[in-house]
Amino acid sequence: MSRPPLLLLLLLLPAARCPAPAATPRLRLSFPELRARHGLRLFQLERSCCYEALLLDEERSRLFVGAKNHLLSLSLDNISQRDRKIYWPAPVEWREECNWAGKDITADCMNFVKILHAYNRTHLYACGTGAFHPTCAFVEVGQHTEDHVFKLDARRAEDGKGKSPYDPRHAAASVLVGEELYSGVATDLMGRDFTIFRSMGSRPSVRTEQHDSRWLNEPKFVDVFWVPESENPDDDKIYFFFRETAVERQQGLGKASVSRIGQICRNDVGGQRSLVNKWTTFLKARLVCAVPGTDGADTHFDELRDVFLLQTRDKRNPLVYAAFSTSSSIFQGSAVCVYTMADIRRAFLGPFAHKEGPNYQWVPYQARVPYPRPGMCPSRTFGTFSSTKDFPDEVIQFARHHPLMYNPVLPHGQRPLFLQAGVPHTFTRIAVDRVAAADGHYDVLFIGTDVGTVLKVVSAPQQSWHGMEPLLLEELQVFQDASPIASLQLSSKRQQLYAGSATAVAQLPLHRCGAYGKACAECCLARDPYCAWDGTACTRFVPSTKRRSRRQDVRNGDPNLLCSEGAWGRGARCRARSGETTDAGCRPAEPSQGRVPQRQLYGVEGSSAFLECVPRSLRARVAWTYQRGPDAPQREVQPDERVVRTERGLLLRSVQRHDAGLYVCRATEQGFTQPVLRLALGVLSAAAPGGRAPWYRDFLQLLERPEAACGRMR
Ligand SMILES: *[C@@H]1O[C@H](CO)[C@@H](O)[C@H](O)[C@H]1NC(C)=O
Ligand SMILES: *[C@@H]1O[C@H](CO)[C@@H](O)[C@H](O)[C@H]1NC(C)=O
């Protein structure tokens, strides 16, 4: 099934690009750099941890946070500012019980806040593990920002069973719809009885059938969303995302993990004679995120990690972005797949999976399906039933035995939008921002990893390779200690990203346009839809500003078109498509020589010299030219046994007198070449008085590993 990562990468790499594997970001920014220069802000609370629940409240300008024994109310503009907090520990009796049950009193017998929802105009609803005694409470936050209310009445706490997990290591997923809470969670101390559960509100609670592995089989819930299906609220559905142990695999193949999407109707109140207070509209389908293999053996990203619903203008059709990793020990990788609601609905309207008996295969159910079709909500839109209690017995029986759909939900484009393999991290969280750029809308992905980094990815249309090309713009180390990103929230309005981990909460702007460089070409090559060249600097692109004064080209990232003098003046059009080399007549005017930094360097005859040149973009390819004197021809430096190219520059072993001259380092990216540095090398005679110059340093030590010349890799 699984194939080695290298092979996979080779299959997926756009052949014309080199050396830019999917794992190389254009910019990699470290934690100290982000803190010092790019507005990274942190929040930490003494004697707490585990900032797992983040709730964004734009109206009150607050970021509400659930952590160990605490609830926090932070300013969305600056989370480092003085906070308001609520101490919410588990009562001593519960902690003692927890300890008697064999749990660690200092580590586990605490109240880990896992659930945080906006309840009404004045209150939040929060749930925590309560030392293996789940508990929930209303939190008063006031109607307005100015109210400065942040209060929890612990005496009025409610039972949190079926809402919060018992175990701090477990996750729960839930959504509040009106006054009702839909949750996917373990409802027992041992973490064995899993349920999809509706509680609160005025209707009786409804849950999934207990101890029936066809319904749920050791599920891990990831997310829950409410999506309307028509104008009629009776058709509203709740979608659960989870992963579980596959039931549809043949015996003997071991435990296989599958990712799922489950659905229930919002107006499901259970059956009348059977399935009383159990869902009658529960269905689930397999969610596939895989790379098709040439031999039909697909590489599966089978472990769903996180889901982000990107709202579009049509409330019924959000885009579903999902992050996956692999459960395989042979093949390790992560991927992002996108699903449309149309494809999801199609799977639920397709054939039901059916198994005649223990020794039979799973097949599509061929016989007559009772009416109304299981999974349909009782509503005037599609039928005549007004309640699930009116459903015929035949329908209820069919629903009980056929919760699984035969057809899986395939991703948009039949393949992942972005994937990484053979890298030392996996994806844990995802948030998506739809950004208006000069040439259309782009979805920018922010992907949290298990090593405290956030990847910023944009998918741009590409000419040569399957339509879309993911661009890894930035790799950002937002936590000092490489702890996994446990929660991720994004504010388009404020252009800020918020991340939580075991150790801290972090806040970071969505863009750092200036970090791409000080030249138009650098700004343009970055292809960051948030950024544009304004004539003097790379700055935030705002679509409403005057169009002519801004330079941006996310689609092609072509500086020839945007940054040459012609583009600013009388429109001399000179176009080079990415991947092609610019022919001489079409080369844009190089920036005036004064703007390219120039350095003087001396080497000693017979020893080595290192010409360092690291372009800002990690995706650029470096080439060197050499010129003996002002009138001598310029020629390209060819590596040989004496001249070695390294990742950081050019190493001349045993410098000779004739090596003296002008070296120019040029960076090429997407067919666009720009000079980065001019180095004048002088060669000193080894036989100078006093022998070796005292400042001499053998640069051989700097040589880490010679870079394989790009051309040879093709
Ligand atoms: C954010 O708040 C912290 C703590 O009050 C303060 O030191 C810092 O200057 C603030 N940053 C900004 C940009 O306001
Ligand atoms: C919000 O809900 C809380 C808890 O039920 C209640 O006390 C409060 O009055 C409600 N507020 C509004 C504005 O309805």
Automatic annotation (TrEMBL):
Leader sequence residues: 1-22
TM helices/strands, residue ranges:
none
Query: Quick one: which gene encodes this?
Result: SEMA3B
> Which SMART domains does this UniProt record tie to the protein?
IG (SM00409), IGc2 (SM00408), PSI (SM00423), Sema (SM00630)
For this entry, the protein name equals Semaphorin 3B
Q: Name one GO molecular function term.
A: semaphorin receptor binding
- Whether Disulfide bond counts among this entry's keywords is yes
Pfam hit, one: Sema
Major site of localization recorded for this protein: secreted
Q: Which InterPro entries match?
A: Ig-like_dom (IPR007110), Ig-like_dom_sf (IPR036179), Ig-like_fold (IPR013783), Ig_sub (IPR003599), Ig_sub2 (IPR003598), PSI (IPR016201), Semap_dom (IPR001627), Semap_dom_sf (IPR036352)
